[in-house]
Amino acid sequence: MTYTETSLSAIRVVGLTKRWGERTVLDGLDLTVAPGSVYALLGPNGAGKSTFIRILTTLAPADGGVAEVAGHDVAAHPDAVRRSISVTGQETAVDELLTGRENVRMIARVAGLRRRDAEARADELLAQFDLLDAADQRAGSYSGGMRRRLDLAASLVVIPAVLFLDEPTTGLDTRSRQTLWRRIEELAAAGTTILLTTQYLEEADELADRIGVLDGGRLVAEGTAAELKARVGTEVLELTIGCAAGRDRAAQLLDATPAGPDAIHVPTDGSADHVRHVLDQLADHHIGDVRVAVHAPTLDDVFLALTGGPVEVAA
Q1: CB burial class (10 A; 0-12, 13-18, 19+) of residue 36?
Q2: Rounded distance between C-alpha atoms, residue 253 and residue 283, angstroms
Q3: Virtual CA dihedral for 45, 49, 55, 57, nearest 10 degrees?
Q4: What is the pLDDT of residues 61-101, one digit of tens each?
Q5: Across-strand partners of 197?
Q6: Which of 14, 149, 187, 276 is a Cys-bridge partner for 192, taking CB atoms 3.0 to 4.6 Å apart?
Q7: Inter-residue contact 307 to 258 (CB < 8 Å)
Q8: Residue 278: inside a domain
Q9: Cβ–Cβ contacts within 10 Å for residue 91, how many?
């Protein structure tokens, strides 16, 4: 029987721990991902996102806990896990001595496709990722963005039960990013489970059925984008303060989160009374040169509120 017949989750993690030397990278992590869904994992640099993916894809052992992918225990049955997944890591894994077409065709042949089917699949994927014009050029001559697209194309030669994407759109232009977004949506609609890490919060907002925020090796928040935004408040008061010292005093006074080099965010109900109260507090403490805007909370606001810093490249 397949995992979809025996399990309610495509990914199940209970009490997962990992240490590098004296440093605890994953600290008793619990997480479940439903089949056919897109799960986005956010977190600051060093939060443990890439280590988490390395464990789930059998590339690194856990120090404790249980991890299952596609119904298979990662530690006990790594070969079964590998047969059920595909992975695109942060670093591209293409052979620069081969052409783009040869790279994808080679992966297709390794996956068991017949020669003619491998050639057809390579052409299909190269077209999807706008690489046909460069298909017969050596991959070593490709730009960084082209190599990234080639790596993504190769990872989709065979549609897996579970697809892991670690910072998949880093280095891609807007058009290529949107192409990948559409492909992710199509794969999920067809039943593939996708777990991705991303440094683009709008990417998680656009694609993910559920979002987890990892900080210090622990899942500090989880839910839909709407649920996470609701944790910040119905609206956010953005205060742009010209004086750096005044901005720092205001952040401490209002328990606000930073929002760029000269602004802070304060949760608000959007009422005139609350806005007036905040401005009165600033005036009482002689903090001037303030510009005010009110907007709906974004995932940036969620991330700042939960981790105290901006989202960064996964680690």
Answers
A1: middle
A2: 12
A3: -120
A4: 999 999 999 999 999 999 999 999 999 887 778 899 999 99
A5: 41, 166
A6: 187
A7: no
A8: yes
A9: 10
